[in-house]
Amino acid sequence: MRDKNLYGISGLHQYVDAENFGLILDNVNAKYNRALWRQFASWGEPINEREWKQGIKKTPILVRASVLGTHSGKPQRSTQGWNIYGGTLPQVGHGFNVTKDDMIELRRISKLNDITFGESLVDCFITNSDAMLGGVHNELTYMVMQAMSTGEIHDVAVDGFRYDFKFEIPEENFVYPDEGKNWFNANGTANVNADVIEDFITFQNYYTDTLSLGVDHWKISKTLLDKIVLHPSVVNAYKASKNYFHPEDVKVVRTDVLNWMHNDMKVWPFQEIDFKSRHEEDGKPVADAPAFDIHNMAAVSRAYRPFEMKCMNSILVDRVKMGGLDPSTRYSFVEDRIAVRNSWQEDPILNVVDCELYAGPVFNNVHDYGIATVWEEE
Fold it and tell me: How many other CB atoms are found less than 10 A from the CB of residue 2?
């Protein structure tokens, strides 16, 4: 903070140098070190283009080496178990403007609190940068949840740009109940013809025995898990296991039902997903549709995170290295990936802060993954 004039008005660059600009953003971003998407994805190394390609193995369980005699030749591995898939990284962005009206208000606040305008502006920058960077992490989480629950990403920004991508998960890795035995009807009510526990065991045996996948638990939305616990086929089977002759005397408790499913019926553990997000329309927050599809469950391995967050080096990195920047502009690269730029505009007067990131979740191995669709709406 260099300006001690109580009423001096300028852009953020006048009060915060380049080094402290980066420090402020890093400190703000630190609260997102535990962002939900990081449970399921780790940052990949930034590349210099938007197009990415990735090798994937077709056989998730490795073929054993052979015991060799003294002079025997070594058997050769097949190299046909790998293939390549790729796509284009979407651009994620967020930002805010400190307008002339905002500055009038900041000037009033600074006078009331006997602080400088610069201090008020920095406080405003910190508060809004928190929401800006939080919005980026929320978008990454939203894409991860979509990919994890459907094998696809369908995201529409408020400005109308649509990003669609379908991962190359083999069709055989998608499973469904037998015809007419969906767990829930189109309106969400329980289907009395379904047998939830039997389907769980069938799905699990198919994945591990028939496909030889290394999956060991279910990722599932809270909404779907709540409906499963109360499904008549689950409740009736649970009551019968506790008191076959007088099931009406058995009290149904959620945790008891889940323990029975895991311990007695050998249904894999659940990782419950409860993620909510919003987007802005005309400056007002609007609730998003659930990111994790409430009709699906994902069969996953606990041995590794299923995604890598592919990302691209911002072109602004090269621009900063060239030097000779406008002195009213500040750049920083949060986590060396999210490019943040602060600039000053004279007419109309604006302090503009925006960020951008080319990134998206990519499966580490699309073959070692399963998706079960148990409920289809109309």
Answer: 10
